[in-house]
Structures are given as structure tokens and as C-alpha cells.
Design goal:
The protein is mainly alpha-helical. It is built from three helices and no strands. The protein starts with a helix and ends in a 13-residue tail after the last helix.
Length: 58
């Protein structure tokens, strides 16, 4: 998580949206949800609320 904490906010958000887009398109697997959780945690620490990925409940 320290890696994500060092990223500028713009890069953190861009990485989040790119990962969710690639999961939706089937390019990468849902196994990266752990990474998304880390990104969401860091964003939350910065006062940024990110929604859950589109099918995280499945």
C-alpha cells in the first residue's frame, strides 16, 4: 500500500479507473480486486470516495 500512498492523486485515480475498465472488458481478471481495495483505501485516506467496482458483489 505504501506504493499507492506515494502516487499523486491523479495517478492513483487513473490507475483505479484503468484497472476497473480492463476488468470490465475482460482484459485482466478479477484477482486484482485486492489491488483495487488498496487503491480505494488510499483514496479514502485522502478524502476521495470511489465506488465499488461494477460487479464486486458477485
Amino acid at each position: 500500500m505504501n506504493t499507492y500512498r506515494r502516487l499523486p492523486t491523479e495517478n492513483l485515480l487513473a490507475y483505479y479507473y484503468e484497472i476497473t475498465k480492463e476488468i470490465k472488458e475482460g482484459i485482466i481478471s478479477k484477482s486484482v480486486y485486492f489491488e483495487l481495495g488498496l487503491i480505494i483505501s488510499v483514496a479514502s485516506e485522502r478524502g476521495i470516495t470511489l465506488g465499488d467496482p461494477f460487479d464486486i458483489k458477485q
